Q: What sequence folds into this?
């Protein structure tokens, strides 16, 4: 069961209220989306988006049980990078609030996509969308240098070169088709005592391939670039990141907007989960929340 990260802080930043229109662009299981939608009722409009259609199936059930009194409740399976197309198609104007909670949800671990290096054996798909090319098909098309660059650039893995070499060596013997296949190669490629056993050696490589397969940095850049067309003046965007590169993108984009007088930083300092939240939900450890209000 996915536990929403920084829920109270998100509600405080976006302060949804009756009759407003808000978007949760990564709605997942509705951990943030449902509490937002409740506060928009009666009369508001809620748009929930997710690129993984299985997430929306489960969410629809949860929402039906809520019996929300909204003017419109729209759920769309789409890449949030295409938000402008969705807004046009749904005939929605500019909105009061937007939430983007990046990455994957705990509900996607063990759901058959190979996101996790733990648990049961699954095909190494790693894409949110069913229509994207799975990693087990992408991997054979990449050379050793490209693989090393992807792992290094997207995860700062210091043994990226060794891991890339091991992947190329392994695939000459057998194809790397499952999460277990990839995890085994990575674990065997790194030195014993990797990070003093603090994290599984496969952690960073899995993160890098997931970001690569879904073009996550590009998607983030596109939704940031469309904020001015998405939000009303006074509308707010709250973004939760879990990766230093993503946080740097959000930080600089918001700072530039503020310097040009087009936005106000709602929280001057980045918001991070408190110790109590991290204790209950260790996955929240790396979360960073930034919010901008458009002028
Ligand atoms: C961290 S989870 C969100 C969890 C949600 N906030 C909650 O608390 O229930 C991120 C979700 O975003 C979805 N996602 C990732 N990239 C996406 C994209 N480019 N477009 C739309 N959804 C995306 C994933 O499928 C996942 O369900």
A:
């Amino acid at each position: 069961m996915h536990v929403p990260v920084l829920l109270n802080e998100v509600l405080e930043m976006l302060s949804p209220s009756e009759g407003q229109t808000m978007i949760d662009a990564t709605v997942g299981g509705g951990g943030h989306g449902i509490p937002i939608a409740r506060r928009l009722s009666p009369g508001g409009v809620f748009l929930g988006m997710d690129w993984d259609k299985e997430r929306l199936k489960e969410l629809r059930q949860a929402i039906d049980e809520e019996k929300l009194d909204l003017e419109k409740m729209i759920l769309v399976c789409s890449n949030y990078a295409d938000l402008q197309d969705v807004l046009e198609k749904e005939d929605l104007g500019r909105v009061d609030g937007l939430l983007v909670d990046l990455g994957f949800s705990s509900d996607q671990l063990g759901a058959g996509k190979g996101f996790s290096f733990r648990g049961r054996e699954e095909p190494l798909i790693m894409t949110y969308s069913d229509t994207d090319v799975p990693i087990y098909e992408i991997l054979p098309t990449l050379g050793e240098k490209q693989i090393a660059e992807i792992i290094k650039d997207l995860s700062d893995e210091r043994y990226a070169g060794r891991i890339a070499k091991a992947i190329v060596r392994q695939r000459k013997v057998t194809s790397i088709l499952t999460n277990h296949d990839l995890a085994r190669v990575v674990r065997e490629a790194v030195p014993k005592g990797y990070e003093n056993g603090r994290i599984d050696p496969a952690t960073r490589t899995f993160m890098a391939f997931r970001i690569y397969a879904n073009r996550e940095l590009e998607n983030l850049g596109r939704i940031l670039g469309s904020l001015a067309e998405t939000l009303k003046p006074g509308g707010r965007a709250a973004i939760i990141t879990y990766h230093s590169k993503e946080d740097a993108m959000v930080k600089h984009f918001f700072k530039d907007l503020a310097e040009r007088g087009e936005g106000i930083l709602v929280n001057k300092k980045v918001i991070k989960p408190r110790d109590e939240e991290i204790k209950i939900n260790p996955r929240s450890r790396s979360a960073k929340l930034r919010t901008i209000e458009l002028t």
Summary: The radius of gyration is 20 Å. The mean pLDDT is 96. Residues 2, 4, 26, 28-32, 49-52, 55, 79-81, 101, 103-105, 128, 214, 219 surround S-adenosylmethionine (CB under 6 Å).
